[in-house]
Amino acid sequence: MAKPRGLPSPEQILEFLRTADAKTGKREIARAFGIKGADRVELKKLLRKMADDGQIASRRKRLSDATGMPPVTVLRITDTDADGELVGEPAEWADHGSTPPKVLVFQDSRRKPGPSQVAGVGDTVLARVRTTGDKDWPYEARMIKLLKGATGTVVGIFTASPRGGGQIVSANRKDKQGFEVLRGDEGEARSGDLVRAEITRQRGRGYAQARVVERLGPADDQHNVSLIAIHQHGIPDEFPREVIEASEALEELKPPKGRTDMRSLPLVTIDPPDARDHDDAVWAAADDDPANPGGYKVVVAIADVAAYVRPGTPLDREARLRGNSVYFPDRVVPMLPERLSTDLCSLRGNEDRPAFACFMTFDKHGRKIAHRFDRIWMRSAAKLAYAQAQAAMDGNPDDVTGPLLEPVLKPLWAAYGALKKARDKRELLELDLPERKLILNDAGEIVSVVIPARLDAHKLIEEFMIQANVSAAEMLETKGSPLLFRVHDAPAPEKVDALAEFLATLDMSVPKGQVMKPQHFNRILDKVRGGPNDAVVSQTVLRTQAQAIYTPENRGHFGLNLRRYAHFTSPIRRYADLIVHRALISALKLGDDGLSQFDIDNLEETAGLLCLAERRAMVAERETTDRLIAHFLRGQLGADFTARITGLVKAGLFVTLEDSGADGFIPASTLGEDYFIHDEQVQAMTGQRTGESWRMGDVVEVRLVEVTPIAGGLRFEMLSEGRKGKPPAMSGRKGRPARGKPFRRPSKAGSKWRK
Q: How many Å is the Cα radius of gyration of the chain?
């Protein structure tokens, strides 16, 4: 269908939204482009389609560009300009697949900052961003606050000098230089200790200097491995005294008036076997309403953290600072003190607990036809593990699940069967990537690496939680309440283009000019499922996706294929969920412990802090897993492994071991007697003279030649022959030469690294 005359293109609308200073809605867009009469109806359709595609966001009749940076975000200061102004870039732009934009960053001119609030190169700041319309500097930002964390510190291994002082080798593999510790600055550290040190000024051309501020323990003790990431990333792992005292002073709530008593309803928790806190409990039954034949009633009850953690209290301030709990293989850094997380707020079996319940009704096709919220009193009928509940449904109940099978578990599975129909029809993004779990012994050492089975019990709880989260977002949006949405934007066009180029090398195609939906990615994944390209295509599709964030602006959730989504179901471990609980309390007039004025006024700042905390936790958890696996493999130097190529850069290949999931690197200079070209288009490393190549996804044999446990680094050498082919034609190619030198590939019988 032809575009009506005079109707702007989506690109023109986005450019207008980026440069508009005032409130902008349909009326302003129509006026700006001179759209009148029947064309206004077509404009409305176009804007609705752009919103569905994730290009624009709408909130309170105000439209904004959803493809750029969020209005409040975290920036890393990278430089200063000729006038001495700070220059930054988005701290998480690596996920966007393009060069990060430069942002001019200004200090808050309304008040003179103290010394601890003056930002400089290398610092991370939370800032309010706006577009300028300037081609050279499209963004500028005003700093909200300097984010304190690991800036100016180093975590590493201390080696003492006979004359006092010593040196520190950083645990961060990006730090190539060592740090000198002057005599008297070593504190109580001894050789081989893991330490946290404050970096002092560089002196001349020698080592940077650092002063030990904390001895963390022996570096070879694997109990200390997670401490590296905790201190390196500035994750608060000790609660201030006033927070502990505040939690200990809390009295257990008793069933008062004003809450619905639902202690007779057999709600159950279903969690991992080692879970210590229990956020959610579930119940389901066939709907007895004749108007809804074959339908189901579902209750999702969530720990009522808001009843204990009031706005502005020490507990609240600390929870907002932490943002979320952080889960390491050997420990948990909780968002809330244990008095709350494992006691008062945990829905423990056969104990009275206050809860916030979402009551939902579904028809026989799994479509939600009604929902409501209430604050209740509940008493969990049982604490079940996923495998335990699944075994009961598979015909192997135990003493706990046996009595629950008919009245509780079978109705839950029947309701899930209906919801699954709607889930399948909705066609959310189905990325089935295995998650490895490290099994540790009492000494904190890896015993094995397993891939837990993906059970229907997991999927049931996941779908019930998704529906409760959707209900919370819908309810609050209907009420016009402030809230934090969980937003997952559509993939950036340049990422989709890069995916299309890669798929073309596998004789697969992506429809040109078509807005990608989750189902389009699913079709791609279906074509390769079970084949040799399954893993590499799944990983490439994953890397194409945007990073999910928290924001007060609703832009939908691409991966789940939902128009609106908010986190409601885990307030023990996520501060965003606590904000949503408070918003529901205020909007539905369910108590005096709802949103405070501070919560409302600082919603954008809170969203930025929570995004930073989430990203920090993800990186810290991944780095800790890498270090533990490196410890696990250090006794296997010279051993051969089967691996898959999972990344390519001009310096070499990244590989992942098939059995343990360990990641390592193979330098390009060791690949063979040739110079190798990194061909970005086909995602391959190809010999300039021989044409021998290795591609993303190739399964290869490798040998472990170097392990650095403290940094989590593994280096391998290639044993497998590459693919035979023609030397690359460099004309029009995006590839870059990868420096190499003559090097004979080792045989599987022996290696120079063993000598």
A: 28
